[in-house]
């Protein structure tokens, strides 16, 4: 049996059509050629839209995710809305995060209080004030639309009272005396701040520090004066991540972002399907072939990001600790996967290590009892502090427990070292009979643990320091 290619089949159809047309004495070669050309154009349009569309989805994922979050958190979108602040203002979360108030925070920690805000510096800089924290740890991640971060905080600038100005690289004006310039690549972006809180007893003091962090556009800035809050705007929430509207938001963002070095060829590819910076994407104007292709490309892009979100990354003693966070270069899949998991600080600000298995390579469960041991002198070498948190799977949230303890670290009250100076943490769902044990309550079902190391030392950053594996007690 002989199998013909699509090209051969098409050629055969043309020959038959020509023969039939000649026999009928109505041969029109121009019409046949035009029909074939339309067929070829449709193939090209559909295939380009599918394959470039998938790549565009991965590339554009942080741009669109941030556009979605910015809209939904700078407008009143529902009565149950937790996070809201107008553009260029800051929302402060005045509670220690626990199982009942985590909201949309992914993998929440209760080491710090959170603050959040979205900025737009397309017309003028934004001034940010930070108070004297008297040495208390704080950081503000200034994240551009590519999900790349710059930090303001104790590690980078100290803890004295200060003013900072977010400016675009091309801004040529003058800043007030004493204001530190912070360049941001994109006109819009996100501020995510953290202020250290040592439990409920420290909450009031931490809130006071957090309340001292505020922002004002340059034209309304008066030193020491918090500006008025604009009137809230109402809107419907948006979520374009799984529809063709994704490409509308991506196209809109690219048209306002400065060209990045060595990405001109990639942008030209995106323009071929109408989503690049030199195009005006409009779903209503798409031909059917391009629409079919983009739908396929959208599905492929979604599948790639979802797979990247849960892929296994290189582990050290069973602990997964990504080092490429906050700076991505051309690794667009890594960038999208980090965004899908909740953004992140630069590793030198805080390094995270996560594991879901014990020394037997078995998933950890609340049915069992585990230990994490640190030899004397083997605690994480940090300039800040460290903590371990257990999260229920698959929700990745902390679970209510009898003692309201949702992390264990170097600041935990009542921490007890072994006689030889080592430290053992006990991870279990039920309270240990021995009340002197360093107990971190775990969820009832499967769980993962995350070790946070703030202001990590060089040994952590270069992977020289290794955490021990979590061991199940038989």
Structural description of this entry:
Keywords: Signal. It holds the Pfam family DUF1254. This is DUF1254 domain-containing protein. The protein is α+β, with helices and mostly antiparallel strands and 474 residues long. The chain folds into 3 domains: 121 residues, Orthogonal Bundle (VPA0735-like fold); 130 residues, Immunoglobulin-like, CATH 2.60.40.1610; 158 residues, Domain of unknown function DUF1214, C-terminal domain (Jelly Rolls), CATH 2.60.120.600. The protein contains 9 helices and 19 strands. A 5-stranded antiparallel β-sheet has the order 1-2-8-4-5. Helix 2 crosses helix 7 and helix 2 crosses helix 8. The longest helix has 46 residues. The protein is globular, with a radius of gyration of 27 Å. The chain starts with 5 loop residues before the first helix and ends with a strand. The relative contact order is 0.14.
SSE order and pairing:
Elements: H1 6-23, H2 29-74, E1 91-93, E2 112-120, E3 126-130, E4 138-144, E5 149-153, H3 154-157, E6 162-167, E7 179-183, E8 188-196, H4 203-211, E9 214-217, H5 245-256, H6 264-272, H7 288-310, E10 315-316, E11 319-320, H8 332-341, E12 350-355, E13 370-374, E14 386-392, E15 408-409, E16 423-428, E17 438-441, E18 447-454, H9 458-461, E19 471-472
Parallel strand pairs: 6-7, 16-17
Antiparallel strand pairs: 1-2, 2-8, 3-6, 3-9, 4-5, 4-8, 10-11, 12-18, 13-16, 13-19, 14-15, 14-18
Helix pairs in contact: 2-5, 2-7, 2-8, 7-8
Domain DUF1254: 87-213
Keywords: Signal
Signal peptide: 1-23
Keywords, separated by commas or semicolons:
474 residues, VPA0735-like fold, Jelly Rolls, 28% helix
């Amino acid at each position: 049996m002989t199998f013909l290619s699509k090209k051969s089949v098409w050629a055969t159809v043309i020959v038959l059509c020509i023969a039939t047309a000649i026999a009928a004495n109505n041969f029109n070669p121009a019409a046949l050629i035009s029909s074939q050309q339309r067929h070829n154009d449709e193939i090209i349009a559909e295939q380009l839209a599918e394959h470039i569309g998938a790549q565009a989805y991965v590339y554009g994922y942080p741009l669109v995710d941030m556009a979605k979050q910015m809209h939904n958190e700078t407008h009143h979108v529902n009565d149950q809305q937790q996070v809201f602040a107008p553009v260029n203002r800051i929302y402060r979360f005045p509670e220690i995060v626990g199982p009942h108030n985590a909201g949309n925070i992914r993998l929440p920690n209760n080491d710090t209080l959170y603050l959040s805000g979205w900025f737009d510096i397309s017309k003028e800089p934004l001034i940010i004030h930070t108070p004297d924290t008297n040495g208390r740890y704080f950081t503000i991640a200034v994240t551009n639309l590519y999900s790349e971060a710059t930090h303001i905080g104790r590690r980078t600038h100290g803890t004295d009272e200060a003013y900072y100005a977010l400016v675009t690289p091309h801004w040529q004006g003058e800043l007030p005396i004493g204001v530190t310039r912070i360049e941001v690549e994109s006109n819009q972006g996100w501020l995510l701040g953290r202020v250290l809180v040592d439990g409920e007893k420290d909450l009031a003091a931490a809130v006071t520090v957090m309340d001292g962090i505020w922002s004002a556009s340059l034209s309304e800035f008066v030193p020491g004066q918090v500006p008025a809050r604009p009137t809230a705007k109402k809107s419907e929430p948006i979520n374009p991540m799984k529809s063709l509207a994704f490409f509308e938001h991506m196209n809109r963002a690219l048209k306002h972002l400065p060209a990045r070095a060595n990405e001109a060829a990639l942008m030209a590819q995106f323009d071929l399907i109408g989503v690049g910076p030199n195009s005006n994407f409009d779903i209503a104007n798409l031909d059917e072939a391009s629409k079919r292709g983009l739908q396929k490309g959208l599905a492929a892009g979604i599948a790639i990001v979802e797979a990247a979100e849960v892929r296994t990354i290189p582990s050290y003693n069973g602990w997964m600790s990504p080092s490429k966070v906050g700076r991505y270069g051309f690794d667009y899949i890594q960038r999208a996967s980090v965004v899908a998991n909740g953004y992140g600080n630069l590793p030198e600000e805080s390094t995270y290590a996560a594991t879901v298995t014990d020394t037997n390579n078995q998933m950890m469960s609340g049915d069992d009892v585990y230990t994490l041991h640190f030899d004397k002198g083997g605690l994480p070498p940090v300039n800040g502090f460290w903590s371990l948190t257990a999260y229920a799977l698959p929700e990745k949230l902390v679970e209510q427990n009898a003692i309201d303890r949702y992390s264990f670290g170097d600041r935990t009250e009542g921490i007890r070292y072994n006689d030889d100076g080592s430290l053992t943490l006990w991870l279990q769902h039920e309270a240990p009979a021995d009340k002197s044990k360093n107990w971190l309550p775990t969820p009832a079902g499967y769980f993962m643990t995350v070790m946070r190391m703030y202001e990590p030392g060089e040994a952590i950053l270069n992977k020289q320091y290794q955490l021990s594996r979590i061991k199940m007690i038989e």
